[in-house]
Amino acid sequence: MTFETLTTCRSCGGPLATTVADLGLQPPSNSYLRSAADIPAEKVYPLRAKVCGDCKLVQIDYDVPPAELFHNYAYFSSFSDTWMAHARAYCAMAAGRFGLGADSLVVELASNDGYLLRNFVAAGIPVLGIDPSDTVAAAAEKVGVPTLVEFFGRAIAERLTAEGRQADLIIGNNVLAHVPASNDFVAGIKALLKPAGTVTIEFPHLLTLVEHVEFDTIYHEHFSYFSLLAAEALFRRNGLRIFDVEELPTHGGSLRLYACHAEREGVADGAGLAKVRADEQRAGLGELATYDRYAEKVEACRVSVRAFLAKAKAEGKTVMGYGAAAKGNTLLNFCGATADDIACVADRNPHKQNTLLPGSHIPVVSPEEMMARKPDYVLILPWNIKDEIMRQLDGIRAWGGTFVTAIPLVREY
Questions:
Q1: What is the Cα Rg of the chain in Å?
Q2: pTM of the predicted protein model
Q3: CA–CA dist 347, 368 (Å, integer)
Q4: Which of 64, 202, 231, 248 lies at a C-alpha separation of 20 to 30 Å from 93?
C-alpha cells in the first residue's frame, strides 16, 4: 500500500525533512465502528508528524479528506464538565473585555454543539456558529445557536461579509489544528473580522506536547501542531497581528491567542507575548535538533504501556479504559492494544456507546456498565481531565480498583 505524502509545509512551503513521531498506519481517531461487521472495510492511513525546516510548524504529512473525518462527527463538547466551565468563564470575560452587546456579532469557527455560543445567546448577544458536521450542528440549533454547516475559509467569509455579517469577535477553539489549508482559513478570519474586531484562537501548545511527550494528541484530525512561533508567521502572512497570549491548563497545556488586523492602531502587546516567545526559545522549538530527540521518548511510552498490560494479564487483573477520546485511540493503536488487553472503554457520550474503537476494536460501554464489572485498573485515556474522571469514578476504590494514566509513562493513582 502506497500513500502520497506531503514534502512541503502547508503554511510556508518550506521543506518537511525531519520526523517528529511516526505512529504507523492508523484509522481516523473518531471513526468508531458500529459492529464487527464494519471491521473489514476499515481504512488506515499514515500517522506521521514532521516539522518544517523553515517556520517550524509541526504537521502530519498525509491528509485524510476532511469530509471523511468530520461527517457524522461523534465528539460533543458538552459531555465534559471541565470544558463547559471553561467556556462559561471565557464568555463572561470576552463580553466584558470587548464590550459586546445586542448590536455585536460573535462568530465561532468549529462551534460544535453550541456549548460555548449558547452562553452569549443567554446574555442577549447575537451569534453565528460555523461547523462542518451536520451531527453537532443539529444539536446546536436545538439550544438556540444558529449554525452554518460549512468548512470555513476565505470564500465563506467573503460571502458573509457581503451579506453585512462581519464579526466583532471571532472565536476558534481547537480548530486551527484541524484545518489542512491553514492560509485559506486565516485569510477567511481576516476577511470576516470588523476593522476594530478581535480574534481569539485556542490550541494545545506544541511546547507541552514536546516537554510532556503528549504524542497522543497527534491524530489525523489534527493536521498541524502549533507553537506561538509558527502561529505568528501564519497570521502575519495573512494580515493579522497577534497582540497577546494566555497560557491555559486545558488539553494538557494550551495557548489562547488574541489577534487583530495588522493595520489596526492603538493595540499594545500584552505581557504574555514576550513570555511565551522566551519559553519557546529556551525549549529549542526553533531548532530541528529538539524534534530529532522526541521519537525516543515516544517509544519509551509504548514500552511502558505494553509492560503494564502484560503484567496485568499475567496477574489475572482486568483493565478497562475510560474516555473514548481521539487521543486514546492514537495511544492504543500505537501500542497495539486490543480487547484482549483492555476489556472495554467507558464513555458518557451515548453516541459512542455500543460501538467499537477504531483500530483496536475495543467495545465502548456506559460508565455504569464498566462500574458493574468492577475492573482492577481503569486506564484514563483523556488524561487532561483525569481529576474530573477520578472524582466521577471514585467508587472503584471500594473494591481496590486503581486509576492509571499512560502519558508520558504509565502511572498509577
A1: 21
A2: 0.86
A3: 9
A4: 231
Q: Are strands 58-60 and 45-52 parallel, antiparallel or unpaired?
A: antiparallel
For residue 225, what are the β-bridge partners?
58
Burial group, residue 149, by CB count within 10 angstroms (0-12, 13-18, 19+): middle
Q: Give the span between the Cα atoms of 237 and 67, in whole angstroms.
A: 27
Which of the 8 DSSP states describes residue 323? Answer: -
Backbone φ and ψ of 159, nearest 5°: -65, -45
pLDDT at 3: 80
Cell of 216: 497522543
In this structure, the chain runs to a length of: 413
> Cα 192 vs. chain centroid, distance in angstroms?
24
| Amino acid letter, residue 390 | M
Pairing of strands 16-26, 319-322: unpaired
Residues 6 or more apart whose CB falls under 8 angstroms from that of 62 comprise 3, 4, 5, 6, 45, 46, 47, 48, 220
46 in helix, strand or coil? strand
Residues 6+ apart with CB under 8 A from 273: 228, 242, 243, 244, 245
Consecutive 10-residue runs of the chain (413 residues): their mean pLDDT?
86 95 94 95 95 97 79 55 86 96 97 93 97 87 93 97 97 93 97 98 95 93 95 98 94 91 96 97 95 91 98 98 94 97 96 96 97 98 93 96 97 97
